[in-house]
Structures are given as structure tokens and as C-alpha cells.
Design goal:
- By secondary structure, the chain is of the alpha/beta class.
- The chain has one domain: 3 Solenoid (UDP N-Acetylglucosamine Acyltransferase, domain 1), CATH 2.160.10.10.
- The protein has four helices and 19 strands.
- The strands form four sheets. It has a seven-stranded mixed sheet, with no helix packed on it. A five-stranded parallel sheet has the order 3-6-9-14-17.
- Strand 18 and strand 19 form a beta hairpin.
- Helix 2 runs antiparallel to helix 3.
- It is globular and about 45 Å long.
- 32% of the residues are buried.
Amino acid sequence: MPEREKMLAGAPYDVTDPELTAARLRARALCQRFNALPAHTPEEERRALLQELTGAATDAYITPPFFCDYGAHILFGRSVYFNFNCVILDCARVTIGNHVLFGPAVQIYTALHPMDADERRSGIESARPVVIGDDVWLGGGSIVCPGVNIGAGSVIGAGSVVTRNVPPGVFAAGNPCRVVRQL
């Protein structure tokens, strides 16, 4: 099985695989181009570059700078907004629902590294997908860890570290992130 397929299936994969390395370098170059666009760049040109990065048309509005590992594993819903300096490490699928708001410096991680130091040195890692439901608001500086699902209509407080699933329709905050109250 090719390393990309292993990666997307959640199986251990070799991060140094030439195909994966080339895909990451491609995404970095496209992010660099996107981040360098002048502020007055027409929205159609920004969206065309995002489509090249992700492989799909999107109406997402992303305020540069923005960074990702591959781009091709990010699935945007409609009317998604990213504030400045967001990062998505999309070694696994990242599914973003409709009308989702990302505060500044939100980070989404899917990569998992082995706990054992010898295994980490091997270059083998795995990844788990992240799913963000419709109408979610992620407060500035939030971090979403691998394998997390955030339910529709939930709000994540600024600076939270989301290490486990969040049900729909709640305000959750903290490190680790916990449900504070129903909305």
C-alpha cells in the first residue's frame, strides 16, 4: 500500500516517503504564494489559488498567513472564515462544516508521533482525522488535536486545547478543553 494511502487510512506511514515529501513541498509553495498576495488581490484569484491547494472549489475566506501540510486533505463547507495565522496539519482528512469561524492562530493537528523515542527517530508516524461540524466557532489560539470531532453549533473558548470530542451545542473551554455549559 502506498504511504499516502496508509497515512489517510490511519495506519503507520513513512513521513520521508518521496511522494509525501513532494506533496508537502507543493503545499508550502502554494501557501507561500497565497500568503504573498497583495491585500487588493481580487477574491477570484485568491479562491483559484485555494482550489489549486485543496483540489476543490471553495468559498472559504482565509486571511493570510495560512499554513497547511498538504491542502488536499482539507474539505471546506460553505461560508467558512479563517482569521490570521491559522495552521492545519492535514496528514489525515480535516472536514470543516458550513458557517465555521476560526479565530486568529487556530491550529488543527492530525499527525500523531510515537511516544517511544526510538520509534519517533524512525520517521514513522500516523494520523487521525478531525471533523468540525456546522456553525462552530473556534476562539483564537485554540488547538484541536488528532481524532477530535466538534459537534455542530458549539463554541470553543480562546486558547483551548481540544483533546477529545465536543458534543453539539455547547460552550467548551480550557486546557484540556471541557464543556462549560449548553448553548
